[in-house]
Amino acid sequence: MRRDSIFYKLFQQSPSLLFELLTNPPANADEYRFDSVAVKEPKFEIDGIFLPPESENPGVVYFCEVQFQKDERLYERVFAESWLYFYRNRDRFSDWQIVIIYPSRNLEQSHLHPHRAFLNSDQVFRLYLDELGDIRSLPVWVALMVLTTLDEEQTPQEARYILAKSQQETPQPENRAIIELLTTIMVYKFEDKSQREVEEMLGITLKETRVYREIKEEGREEGREQGEKSLVLRQLSRRVGELPQFVRSRVESLCLEQLENLGEALLDFQGMADLEAWLNRL
């Protein structure tokens, strides 16, 4: 399941969602703007950055990382990325905060001792989605985040509950945005299901939603292909290091189906040789 793109859409649609998860959010949380940035020389990719309003200068910048797989160098990378960005933009910001979102504690890196000062400070927040409480008691936007972590048996009933709750409590057009994200999660989570089967799970007609048109209709594949390409390139850079130009060009030439297959395969890569071997098998 491609959770990076789902969480990107969640934060893009509702930047204040991040601050709903924090104990002490900034007073102007509703004014923050979400973005994703690249820091070059060396090239780093930051999952999400929450920028304070321009009227608050300097303001506090929030860095966010969503981590759904074990990475024993996660904190080294996240701190390096964030500090480098903060250094290069020091005049714009008065302070920084880092938020790491895990599905559960068992995916956190094992060796924490070198980072104890920051991990135990008030500048770094570690959030575990499975510890937020009953999904039905959570705000709708937060519940959507937790929905991505549930097993396939539990997901349909909780998805229907979130849908009903959104229709009762959320005004338009926000409700439409929630439905689009909910169907995005379901289509990605149940890729082996037919349209009819997913419709029966939710009790709605997917062909009426934007996500189904974008994901399933061949005429709308171009935008999805570009998004998948960017996501795979970013994941590869993290997994095997900076890509040589000829390797990057080969990845960029892949079709959508190949990009999706690569997105699954790269989770097992140990280095550049594994990527090159995979490409040579095409």
Automatic annotation (TrEMBL):
This protein is called Rpn family recombination-promoting nuclease/putative transposase
| Span of domain DUF4351 | 221-279
InterPro entries associated with the record:
DUF2887 (IPR022573), DUF4351 (IPR025587), RpnA (IPR010106)
Positions the record marks as coiled coil are none
Q: Which residues form the signal peptide?
A: none
Organism of origin is Cyanomargarita calcarea GSE-NOS-MK-12-04C
Per the record, the domain of life is Bacteria
What single Pfam family name could you report for this chain, choosing any that match?
DUF4351
